[in-house]
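Handout, section B. The chain below has 860 residues.
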Amino acid sequence: MIPIQLKISGFLSYRDSVDLDFTLLDLACIAGANGAGKSSLLDAFTWSLFGEARGKGVDVLNLSPDVKEASVALTFQYEGNVYRVQRTLPRNKSTVLEFQVLDGEEGKVESGKWRPLTEKSTRETQARIQQTLQLDYETFINASFFLQGKADQFTQKKASERKAILSSILGLEIWETYKERTADKRKALEGDVTEIDGRVAEIDLELSEEETRKTRLSELEKNLKQISTAREAQDSILANIKNTTAILNEQKKLVQTLEKSFNNLHFSLSTLESKIVEKENEQNDFADLVSRAKEIERLYKAWKKVKEELGELENSASAFREYDEKRQPLLREIEVEKVKLEQEQEGLSNQYSVIGEQLSVVGDLEKQIESAKRSLVEVEKKIAEQDAVEGQRNEAKEKLAGLKSENEILRKEMDEYKIRIDSLEKTDSAECPLCGQELTEAHRKSTLNELNKEGKKKGDTFRANKKEMDEIEKQITDYESRITNYKNLDNERLQFSNAVSTLTLQLDSIHVQSKEWEKLGAKRLKEINKILENGKFAVDAQKELAKLDKELAKLGYDVSAHESKRKEELTLRTVEEEHAKLDKAKDLSKRIEKEIKELAEERKKKKEEVDSAEKSYSEALNVLAETESKAPNLQAAEDKFYELKENENRIRDELGAARQKVDVLATLRIRRKDYESQREELNQNILRHKSLERAFGKDGVPALLIEQALPQIEQKANDLLDKLSDGRMTIRFITQAEYKDKKRDDLKETLDIQISDSSGSRNYEMYSGGEAFRVNFAIRLALSEILAQRKGARLQTLVIDEGFGSQDAQGRQRLIEAINAVKNDFAKIFVITHIDELKDAFPNRIEVEKTERGSTVKIV
């Protein structure tokens, strides 16, 4: 991957847009003060490609308050194609990822056209980027980036841990996944064997019951034969009882027939007696009517006279109704007009009351408006103060972060000085443990003096920074406290602003309504009051009504007299029906008397039939009772039969189950043989999986791959180390060593790094910081090339982050020479440093500076 252009906006310390063109840079130094944002440029690379910055995902990116989104766009060349990846993280939204390839002349960005390679989802697009590069994040940073503090990740570990680190760098963790999957499958096979063992045990348990099952089958066959004989005998007894029961049922039917006949005759007798009573009552009614004949005639004549008088009154009422029908519309018209005026009068009166109430609060509204305006001005002042305090707090936080970063670096450097001082003070060797020269007392003192001086200088800077950090933290705490006091100011501003607007609108509305009332409402209310007081409304209707009232008075019609006469006629009207019945009653009275005599004779005959039917029913009922007392118990016989039948069926079912249990034993013997065959096959498969587990374990295939890779790494590292040490240093990897226990014949697994120079061979841990870094650099670069080859990718860009701090002047010069020596192996090499004297050692320089608006860059 060869970078062409990098565009950054709102990302980490780069708030404003930054555009870097790499086309003219092959070997360059990225320089700047500590905390300026040099390493953030590398974070921009990895975040755009993989969504991670120094091992952290997009969720940990904290956008500055004034930044709406973080965006990084990287244009790069890879395998003859030009690609562009743009990753954007808007505030409070999901990440947007775009992937494009340039169609057109190779390398000519300005003349080509971008073709999208973006997939449906961010996850799928990320997978396509990694597939194109043939690298994931971990492989990329281990291959192309020598990140700050990680260049010695491999060499600084204990010898027992280096194989694990090397395995991780080479991506051999997948073999552990293979081992886990194989173990899971082996455990599943072992579970199948356990399940088969359980089933075989169950079969053996059933086969052990063979003799018991056969004995039980014989007993059930004997019991079934006995109970079948008893059930057949009870069946014969039950048939005889059913015959007797059939005869008894016939007698019951006869009793029921006689009972029904008796009840029918008794009902007929009751009906005749009811008819006789009814006729006698009718005869009595007719006799009473004939006895009142004179009174009925008198009342009938009076009714006819009242009816004639009522007819005359109805004629007068008809004429009255004609006049009254003409009056009603006039009355309604007058009433409607009056109601309209009264409603309008009421509405205007209410409006007058409301206007009065509103005018009474005008003074209070004006005071409230002035108060809200004053409060709004106060809130605006506090908001301005809040913005100023927040700006001061943010500046303090940025300064604190820079000091913390600087102190972390100083702490590491002081620790390294302390280790070197302790090593120099405690050593009894004739050689200097730091540089390998002859260790004289003068050399020891001068070196210790220089180291203590440098250490004190860094310690003073560290403590000064710490003191300043404490003061800044106090300032930040004070700012935060002050900001807390400004809480809810926006809500208060909105509240007071709304209050001013609402109260002003309310006051304007009161004034407008008051003017409209004085102009129209007051005048109209006075006019309506006068009209209602004089009664001068619906004048034409009132004149027409007065004229009709005069003509109606001439008729002399009395409504109350008409109503009284109508009630009198209604009271006498019943005599009309009695008068009609009077003539009919005289003829029917004799006929009813004859009917009553005939019904009495019929009743006498019916009573004799009822007595005869009652006697026959009683005799049949006594015979039935005697027969039932001598009959056998059918229910008990049936219960015993069904009990025997149920027992027979139960024993037959048990017999079938017992026979099946005996028959199944032959099947179980066959099944047992099948299970034994399956178990043998599974056990063979388990042994094969155990072999695979050992092969996939750390002492299996991964160990072989490491053994295969180490000679390549050793060769490439020695090639580079030869340039870095002027041919004085070589390294060798030792993978096996003797145990401390001399009695053991075998060797233990290890991964020691043995370095040879003009003074002999020593382990890595015995070398000074500068020498150790050259070894780190050589091994690290060798690992990068091997890793890239194994992933099928090409190592085209190399980035070294802060790699010169531990080197002396000669070591730095040789490291620069080594970088120049390998620069033809890479399309781009970028070296990050904060050491001023190294800036001019490179043909190009990217200057990074921290400003109030964040980090900025320029190419020098």
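Note. Residues 210-291 form the longest helix (82 residues). Compare this with the example in section A.
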